Description:
This protein is mostly helical and 208 residues long. The chain is built from ten helices and no strands. α3 (57-64) packs across α7, α5 packs antiparallel against α6 and α8 packs across α10.
Amino acid sequence: MSVTLPPPLIVDSADTAVDLLRWYYGSTYLDAGCYTGAYFDSWAPQSRDTDVDRFTADDLVAITFLSVNVTASAARELLVTRAARFAELLDAVGPDRDLADEAEPLDSNTPILLLEDELRSVGDIGRTIATKLMARKRPRLVPIYDTVVGRVLNTNTVHRDPIREALRANGGALDERLRSIRSKAGLPDEISALRVLDVIAWMYGKAG
Protein backbone atom coordinates (compact mmCIF):
# COMPACT_ATOMS: atom_id res chain seq x y z
CA MET A 1 0.00 0.00 0.00
CA SER A 2 1.42 3.38 -0.98
CA VAL A 3 0.82 6.81 0.48
CA THR A 4 -1.35 9.26 -1.45
CA LEU A 5 0.14 12.70 -0.92
CA PRO A 6 -2.23 15.69 -0.72
CA PRO A 7 -2.01 18.27 -3.55
CA PRO A 8 0.00 20.79 -1.47
CA LEU A 9 2.83 18.26 -1.39
CA ILE A 10 2.57 17.32 -5.06
CA VAL A 11 2.62 20.68 -6.80
CA ASP A 12 5.96 22.31 -7.59
CA SER A 13 5.34 25.37 -5.43
CA ALA A 14 5.56 25.01 -1.65
CA ASP A 15 3.39 28.10 -1.05
CA THR A 16 0.15 26.29 -0.14
CA ALA A 17 1.92 23.84 2.17
CA VAL A 18 3.71 26.71 3.89
CA ASP A 19 0.42 28.59 4.29
CA LEU A 20 -1.20 25.53 5.90
CA LEU A 21 1.62 25.28 8.44
CA ARG A 22 1.39 28.99 9.22
CA TRP A 23 -2.37 28.78 9.74
CA TYR A 24 -1.84 25.88 12.14
CA TYR A 25 1.14 27.23 14.08
CA GLY A 26 0.37 30.92 13.69
CA SER A 27 1.96 33.55 11.49
CA THR A 28 4.71 33.69 14.08
CA TYR A 29 5.39 30.45 15.91
CA LEU A 30 2.74 29.85 18.60
CA ASP A 31 1.07 33.22 18.25
CA ALA A 32 -2.45 33.82 19.54
CA GLY A 33 -4.01 32.66 16.28
CA CYS A 34 -2.56 29.17 16.20
CA TYR A 35 -4.49 25.92 16.55
CA THR A 36 -4.29 24.33 19.98
CA GLY A 37 -2.48 21.38 18.39
CA ALA A 38 0.50 23.64 17.84
CA TYR A 39 1.31 23.40 21.55
CA PHE A 40 1.71 19.63 21.40
CA ASP A 41 5.22 19.93 20.00
CA SER A 42 6.55 22.35 22.61
CA TRP A 43 4.66 21.44 25.79
CA ALA A 44 6.87 20.87 28.86
CA PRO A 45 10.16 20.52 26.95
CA GLN A 46 12.21 19.70 30.04
CA SER A 47 9.97 16.75 30.87
CA ARG A 48 10.10 15.62 27.27
CA ASP A 49 13.90 15.66 27.28
CA THR A 50 14.44 13.95 30.64
CA ASP A 51 11.62 11.41 30.70
CA VAL A 52 12.19 9.84 27.31
CA ASP A 53 11.52 6.29 28.51
CA ARG A 54 8.41 6.76 30.62
CA PHE A 55 5.01 8.29 30.16
CA THR A 56 4.31 11.27 32.40
CA ALA A 57 1.43 13.52 33.35
CA ASP A 58 2.91 16.11 30.95
CA ASP A 59 2.40 13.65 28.09
CA LEU A 60 -1.24 13.25 29.03
CA VAL A 61 -1.65 17.03 29.02
CA ALA A 62 0.17 17.34 25.67
CA ILE A 63 -2.21 15.04 23.83
CA THR A 64 -5.19 17.10 24.98
CA PHE A 65 -3.93 19.81 22.62
CA LEU A 66 -4.63 17.28 19.86
CA SER A 67 -8.24 16.93 21.00
CA VAL A 68 -7.92 13.58 22.76
CA ASN A 69 -7.57 12.54 26.39
CA VAL A 70 -7.31 9.39 28.44
CA THR A 71 -9.65 8.33 31.22
CA ALA A 72 -8.59 8.30 34.85
CA SER A 73 -8.27 4.50 34.81
CA ALA A 74 -6.11 4.58 31.67
CA ALA A 75 -3.93 7.30 33.19
CA ARG A 76 -3.39 5.14 36.24
CA GLU A 77 -2.28 2.22 34.09
CA LEU A 78 0.11 4.42 32.09
CA LEU A 79 1.63 6.21 35.05
CA VAL A 80 1.41 3.67 37.87
CA THR A 81 0.32 0.07 37.50
CA ARG A 82 1.96 -0.63 34.12
CA ALA A 83 4.54 2.16 34.15
CA ALA A 84 7.47 -0.26 34.40
CA ARG A 85 6.26 -2.26 31.41
CA PHE A 86 5.87 0.86 29.29
CA ALA A 87 9.32 2.05 30.36
CA GLU A 88 10.74 -1.30 29.26
CA LEU A 89 9.06 -1.04 25.86
CA LEU A 90 10.12 2.57 25.31
CA ASP A 91 13.69 1.62 26.16
CA ALA A 92 13.51 -1.23 23.64
CA VAL A 93 12.39 1.22 20.94
CA GLY A 94 15.63 3.10 21.47
CA PRO A 95 16.32 6.81 21.09
CA ASP A 96 14.34 9.09 18.85
CA ARG A 97 15.49 9.02 15.24
CA ASP A 98 14.16 9.80 11.80
CA LEU A 99 11.69 7.31 10.36
CA ALA A 100 13.23 8.04 6.96
CA ASP A 101 16.46 6.41 8.17
CA GLU A 102 14.76 3.12 9.07
CA ALA A 103 15.78 0.80 6.23
CA GLU A 104 13.90 -2.32 7.30
CA PRO A 105 10.12 -2.86 7.02
CA LEU A 106 8.21 -2.96 10.29
CA ASP A 107 6.94 -6.38 11.37
CA SER A 108 4.93 -7.57 14.35
CA ASN A 109 8.08 -7.99 16.47
CA THR A 110 9.38 -4.48 15.89
CA PRO A 111 9.64 -2.74 19.29
CA ILE A 112 7.57 0.24 18.18
CA LEU A 113 4.70 -2.06 17.18
CA LEU A 114 4.95 -3.96 20.45
CA LEU A 115 4.66 -0.64 22.27
CA GLU A 116 1.58 0.30 20.27
CA ASP A 117 -0.02 -3.08 20.98
CA GLU A 118 0.60 -2.65 24.70
CA LEU A 119 -0.87 0.85 24.67
CA ARG A 120 -3.94 -0.34 22.82
CA SER A 121 -4.46 -3.05 25.41
CA VAL A 122 -5.18 -0.30 27.94
CA GLY A 123 -8.89 0.39 28.23
CA ASP A 124 -10.07 3.45 26.28
CA ILE A 125 -6.81 3.80 24.32
CA GLY A 126 -7.26 3.17 20.62
CA ARG A 127 -5.07 3.70 17.60
CA THR A 128 -5.28 7.49 17.53
CA ILE A 129 -4.47 8.06 21.20
CA ALA A 130 -1.73 5.43 21.09
CA THR A 131 0.09 7.08 18.19
CA LYS A 132 -0.23 10.52 19.79
CA LEU A 133 1.31 9.23 23.00
CA MET A 134 4.07 7.52 21.04
CA ALA A 135 4.74 10.63 18.97
CA ARG A 136 5.10 12.58 22.19
CA LYS A 137 8.01 10.30 23.17
CA ARG A 138 9.50 9.67 19.69
CA PRO A 139 8.36 12.59 17.47
CA ARG A 140 10.79 11.88 14.63
CA LEU A 141 10.03 8.15 14.53
CA VAL A 142 6.25 7.83 15.01
CA PRO A 143 3.72 9.41 12.64
CA ILE A 144 0.44 10.41 14.26
CA TYR A 145 -2.67 8.69 12.96
CA ASP A 146 -6.22 9.95 12.97
CA THR A 147 -9.12 9.36 10.60
CA VAL A 148 -8.62 12.64 8.72
CA VAL A 149 -4.94 12.02 8.07
CA GLY A 150 -5.57 8.37 7.26
CA ARG A 151 -8.20 9.33 4.70
CA VAL A 152 -6.01 11.97 3.05
CA LEU A 153 -2.90 9.78 2.91
CA ASN A 154 -4.85 6.58 2.13
CA THR A 155 -3.30 4.89 5.17
CA ASN A 156 -6.37 3.86 7.15
CA THR A 157 -5.39 0.20 6.98
CA VAL A 158 -1.62 0.50 7.45
CA HIS A 159 -0.14 3.86 8.39
CA ARG A 160 3.44 3.80 9.63
CA ASP A 161 5.28 1.60 7.14
CA PRO A 162 3.82 3.21 3.98
CA ILE A 163 4.93 6.57 5.35
CA ARG A 164 8.40 5.18 6.01
CA GLU A 165 8.58 3.95 2.42
CA ALA A 166 7.33 7.26 1.04
CA LEU A 167 9.94 9.20 3.02
CA ARG A 168 12.74 6.97 1.71
CA ALA A 169 11.62 6.88 -1.93
CA ASN A 170 13.63 8.72 -4.58
CA GLY A 171 16.60 9.26 -2.33
CA GLY A 172 14.53 10.73 0.49
CA ALA A 173 12.94 13.43 -1.67
CA LEU A 174 9.76 13.72 0.41
CA ASP A 175 11.65 13.87 3.68
CA GLU A 176 13.87 16.63 2.27
CA ARG A 177 10.85 18.55 0.98
CA LEU A 178 9.06 18.41 4.32
CA ARG A 179 12.13 19.86 6.01
CA SER A 180 12.36 22.59 3.40
CA ILE A 181 8.70 23.50 3.88
CA ARG A 182 9.25 23.63 7.65
CA SER A 183 12.11 26.06 7.15
CA LYS A 184 10.12 28.26 4.77
CA ALA A 185 7.29 28.40 7.29
CA GLY A 186 9.72 29.66 9.92
CA LEU A 187 9.25 26.68 12.24
CA PRO A 188 11.93 25.28 14.56
CA ASP A 189 13.60 21.91 14.14
CA GLU A 190 11.64 20.56 17.12
CA ILE A 191 8.76 20.23 14.66
CA SER A 192 9.65 16.91 13.06
CA ALA A 193 9.27 16.15 9.37
CA LEU A 194 6.55 13.69 10.39
CA ARG A 195 4.61 16.45 12.13
CA VAL A 196 4.91 18.64 9.05
CA LEU A 197 3.36 15.83 6.99
CA ASP A 198 0.70 15.24 9.64
CA VAL A 199 -0.31 18.90 9.90
CA ILE A 200 -0.42 19.51 6.15
CA ALA A 201 -2.49 16.37 5.57
CA TRP A 202 -4.83 17.20 8.47
CA MET A 203 -5.31 20.84 7.47
CA TYR A 204 -5.95 19.85 3.86
CA GLY A 205 -8.38 17.12 4.93
CA LYS A 206 -10.33 19.38 7.29
CA ALA A 207 -10.72 22.03 4.60
CA GLY A 208 -11.89 19.54 1.97
